[in-house]
Amino acid sequence: MNDPQLSTSTKQLDPRKLKAGTNAINFTINKANFSIGSYTLKIMIKDKDWKEIKTVEKNFQAKIYGVPNSILDLDKAVEQMVYIASPGEKDFIEDAKSFEEKMNRFLAFWEKKKPNSKVEENPIMHEYYRRVEYANKTFKGFGEGWHSDMGMIYITFGPPSNVERHPLDSDAKPYEIWDYYEINRSFTFVDETGFGNYRLINPDFSRWPGYRQ
Fold it and tell me: Alpha helices of the chain — where are they, by DSSP H?
C-alpha cells in the first residue's frame, strides 16, 4: 500500500497451503496507518520457492467520515481554507507536529462553523469544498482553479446571480461581469492574455463582506 501524501508503505505475509482449484482466502491487514489519500493494494501469490505466480493490484481511497469526498490531501485542504480562515487560524493548523494533530485541528475549525452542533453533517464545510472542487473544474487559467481570481470570488461568494460574458467583442479583450444582487456587488474579469486566464479588475478588498454561505 502506498500513500503519496506520506510516502509510506507496508508489507505483510500470509504463508498457507492451498488446494487445487478455487480457494477462498480472508486476510486482515494489521497495524496499517491509513490517512486520507490514494492507495494501491498489491496482492502477490508465490509458490513455496518464492517464485511469483500471480499479482493483482487495486487502487482505492481512504477517507474520513464527515469529510467531503473531494479532500484527498490534508495539506492541500488546509491551504485552500485561505478564503474562510484567518492567517492565524491557518497557521495554527499548519503548525501541527503530526498528521493526527493537524487533522484534529482542521476538524475543530470546521466544527465551529457548524450551524447546528447537534447534527453530524457540516453543510458549511461541504459547501466550501464543493465550491473549491467546482472552481478547479471550471476556472482553468495558468494554475489551479481554486487559486484563480474567478475561483477566489466563486468560493468566497458562491454562484453569481448573473453572468455577463463578452468573449468576442471587437473593441475589447474577452471579459466577464459577475453580479451578486444580494450584496450589491459586481466583479469584472478580463482575459489579458487570450488564454482563459481571467483576472479580477480593481478588487476592493476593504469592501468585501467575507465568506458568504
Answer: 74-79, 87-94, 99-113, 123-138, 149-157
Specify the pLDDT at position 145. 95
DSSP string covering 187-202, please? EEEEESSSSS-EEESS
pLDDT at 202: 81
Residues 6+ apart with CB under 8 A from 180: 157, 160, 161, 186, 187
Cβ atoms of 22 and 30 within 8 Å: the answer is no
pLDDT confidence band for 72 (50 / 70 / 90):
confident
- Angstrom distance (rounded) from CA 10 to CA 123: 36
* Mean of per-residue pLDDT scores for the chain: 85
In this prediction, residue 6 has a pLDDT band, given cuts at 50, 70 and 90, of very low
Amino acid at 10: T
**For residue 127, which phi and psi values (nearest 5 degrees)?**
-70, -40
- What residue segments make up the domains of the chain, in order of their start? 2-62, 66-138, 139-213
Provide the 8-state DSSP code for 70. Answer: T
Q: Which residue type is seen at 35?
A: S
